[in-house]
Amino acid sequence: MALPTSIPMLVHLLFLITVCVAAPAQFIEPLLASNASLLNLKRSTSQDPSCPSGFLCEQTACPANVVCPTGERCVNFEGTLGCVPNAGLSFCAINPTNRQAVGCNQGVCCHGNCYIDETVCCDRPSVQCSVGQLCNACPSGQTCNANGCSGDPNTAPPTTTTSKPTSISIPTTTPVSPTVLPTSGTFKSIGCFADADGNRVLTTGSSVDYSPTGMTVEKCAELANGYQYAGVENNGECYWGDILSYQTSKDMAECSDYCNGDLTEICGGENRILLYQDSAWVLLTDAEYAAALQEFQALLQQLQTAVTKWHEDLKAYYAAIKEAAQKKRKRASVSLTQQGITLNLDREAILELMKPRTIKLKLITLDYYLKIKINQKQKNAEAAAKEFKTAETVINTVTEEIAKPNLPVEIIAEGIVPTIAQVEAVSTVVTAGTEIAATLGGAAVIVDGVVVAVATGIFATIAAVLAHFIPAGPPGGGGNDPPVTTTTKTTSTSSTCSPTMSPTAMVILMTEDATAAQYKDLALSIPDPQNHKEIIYELVNFRVLIADVNDCDIKKLWDNPIVETMSLEGPFILDDEADTASAPVAKREAGNVTHREFTHVVRDEPNVTAGLSGRALNPLIDFKTQPNSPWHLKLLNGLSHQIGVGLNGLFYDFPGYLFADRSAATQPQVSEVNLYLLDTGIRATHSDFAGRQVTALDATETDPSDKQGHGTHMCSVSAGNYAGVAKNANIVSVKKNQFVGAMSRAIGMILDDVVRHNFQARAVINMSFGAFISSLYPDDLPQGAQGPRIDIIGAYLARLYRSGIVVVCSAGNNGNFEINLIDKTPRVHGGRDTSLIVVGATTFDEIRWPNSQVIDPNDQGILSIYANGVDVVSAWFQDDDLYTTASGTSEATAVTSGRIAYLIANDVLQAQLVQGGLSNFASAVKAHIRQLGTNMKGTARVDPVYATPDTVPRLANGEAIECPTQNGQVAQPAYQVAPGAQEILPAAYPTIQVSDGMQVEVPQNQLPPCVRRP
Q: How far apart are the C-alpha atoms of 754 and 761, rounded to whole Å?
């Protein structure tokens, strides 16, 4: 049930505490303290979505260097600090602007309000509360649900009173100059390093504690005990391991952030790790490593003995239960009961051995020693490591299988005849046990010096690893010597092919009609199957295999009909890194923006003003203008730039961005559109995305956040609240990196998401990156193994088109070096007869930006359209409220992607564009935006560098509102030029409604002039 304030009993149950004394059954407006002082304001919007507007509700501990007067303590609301008396009120929320605080006496806080003890606080992010409002909470005894509360409230609830809060004074901070702690125990500082390309320097383990009593160098060294390296980063993060990966040494000055747990110590910095090395750590010698392997082998033999016993007991139990069921013998049930109990105890013994602190821990430790030996160029280590990976796979498989919940057998009670279903269930367990025993394998058996059974499974693997470090003992292994196996490793190479290329990671794409069985057969035919990586989305028949193969393997793969194409793993996928970004700027307050409106009648005829591409405006759709629009938005519909023949008559010359509010939430004829930004991630908490449908997917197997800024920039420009074109689109960030495997996973994610949620012909992908096609293939393949060299990204494009997805990519930023448009994929796949939309960048006056690539050596018509790409405003990725500007074809691509998402949200237009079928939808959209750009803005331009005709269309909005008369308001459009510096409004920018049926509404005295077009 909900929490209606009109029911006295519920008011009593959830009495909000904000007044001096209140009658239990009476609800009184709160009295707020007005002396809450601020220090170092960090946030303007609470992380609690239900927190009252203007307040901060999330409370954390204060930093250690904050000092309050005697008798007072510090409170911290999301970076806003204050001092309050030690005794007396607690606080639930603070307003960082007017310094009001909500006090609470002997109650509990919930979303900024204070309730009596035992109140249940609900988590419904869509509900925003107000101070003094009974909101998002349930009485004691009830539970929260999607619509309110359910269950019966407890009777006689406890009551409480409040007192007026004391003035909250300003705390002071003590000056602290953190320094590098030179040593912690046996760990010594070795310098400041940077994580490279999103990869951690230390990857074995990590711990995070940002609290004021959190991470210190000493705590991190303790966590890293037993490992060679420890590292602290970003105030409260600790990492450890035995190997340094991807490290880049940096000046010690770049590691300057204090440790949250000790402000006198340095804990690295943003993307900077302060490393420590344990001087007492010693790498095992070969003999010591071999001894450790033999200890591990002995532990495995215990495991094998336990598995064998369980498996044999299983088979005996199955025979007994099957016989009892067939002959309906009750006498057998007593023995069945005991057998079942014994079986389950056998399994528990196996699980005990498989615990992380036993077998798996030893396995991980041995593996890391091998990796260190590889780093030190030890000759035998790399070969041993390849063998050892098989052991890891076996242990992981056995661990997963033995822990499955269906393996304990059902205990048959005394005097009960087992049923057929119970017998079948035991049969299934026997089958699983057989597979587990086979996977684990067995040690060699030697009788009188003669091998009567060779080592198999993981025992054969350990024997092979041991052989790299100590001489082999008697045949088959005996005593402490490594067992010897007679099995040989098989490969896919044939006797007629001798590999000339070392095994190399390749990304192998299967055809769409490949079956699961065919794929499995192919995967098993490639060497080292336990180390393959698979990317499979069954719903869309998307199967990709990443495996280490040589040139002979590649030749066989090309001969397999289910292989569509292959590519090297990379890293080869590059963002348009030549994009130039400016320093972030703060947004200004918009308190002086007029919100008063006045109505101007447009016409009385039933047909309202002409709009998009000459189509009549739907009277159910409101139009809005965005005051102080960023320049890239103004260019879309500024009448002084509409020099084509698309408009004919008198039109209002709105100074800001004019757009239709085609929100699916308010307009029944409008559908949702997903805009996929395939980039570096997103800062989803930025205010430019506030209140929007934002999904953050990760194809890199790390996290979806943005560590570089490019992805946040693209999301903001295409669909942000302030900087974006498509203000109603669903934003779907899909994080990639430079590897083809991650790109493949991202494409699979998008295809699956579009089909699974029925977004065909309602989806747009933004691709602001490129890869040299020549880098996607190895150079040393022998004759016959080269294959057709099909660009894997081009293969993905075809699948996207068939699913009704529009793909928009950048033209590249090396035009100033006269680099042509066929240098990289995906843009090489553009052209007059293709569906790919390739976007170039223009300056503020829609002249080609000199860096935008334009040379089309084969005259294929690769470049589709131009959009503004210079000094484009967007959200900044390192702060929730800052913006920046950047220049490049990436920016132009994001503007275009947003424009397309805006267009296809209109059901009328979308239905026309999809008439030719899903596979032709992207081509229809491409033709439409090119025709619209030509009609609205013409093509009579000259290239600024080559002085040749520039006939590529410019991106246009196509929205305009016709003036009703020629009553003296007619004026020539003043040519708009970009301002020297763009002034940025808050994300919650004021919009002005300009069309509602047959009326135009604008702020008082702000009706724009009418101008004639063309």
A: 9
Q: What is the pTM of this model?
A: 0.53
Among 623, 592, 566, 545, smallest CA distance to 785 is for: 566
3 state DSSP class of 509: strand
- Separation CA 632–CA 716 (nearest Å): 12
Dihedral sign, Cα of residue 464, residue 468, residue 470, residue 473: positive
Please write the tens of the pLDDT for every residue from 365-400: 666 566 666 655 565 666 666 666 677 777 777 777
Q: Quote the CA–CA distance of 740 and 568 in Å, as a whole number.
A: 7
Each as own residue / partner, the long-range contacts of residues 119-123 (CB below 8 Å, 24 or more positions apart, any chain) are 119/13, 119/14, 120/144, 120/149, 122/149
> Which string of DSSP letters, residue by residue, matches 229-252?
EEEEETTTEEEEES---S-EEE-G
> Which tokens sit at 379?
């000759």
What tens digit of pLDDT does each residue of 7-39 get?
Answer: 222 222 222 333 322 222 222 222 222 222 222
CB 389 within 8 Å of CB 315:
no
The residue whose two tokens read 């490969």 is 491
Phi, psi of 845, deg, nearest 5: -105, 20
- The side-by-side arrangement of strands in the sheet containing 1010-1013 is 649-652, 1010-1013, 970-971
- 820 DSSP β-pair partners: 855
Q: Please give the full DSSP string across 370-388, using - where no structure is assigned.
A: HHHHHHTT-TTHHHHHHHH
**DSSP line for 250-308:** E-GGG--PEETTEEEEE--BTTEEEEEEETT--PPPHHHHHHHHHHHHHHHHHHHHHHH
Q: Are 991 and 660 in contact (CB under 8 A)?
A: no
Backbone dihedral angles phi then psi of residue 104, each to the nearest 5 degrees: -145, 125
In angstroms, the CA 986 to CA 590 distance is: 7
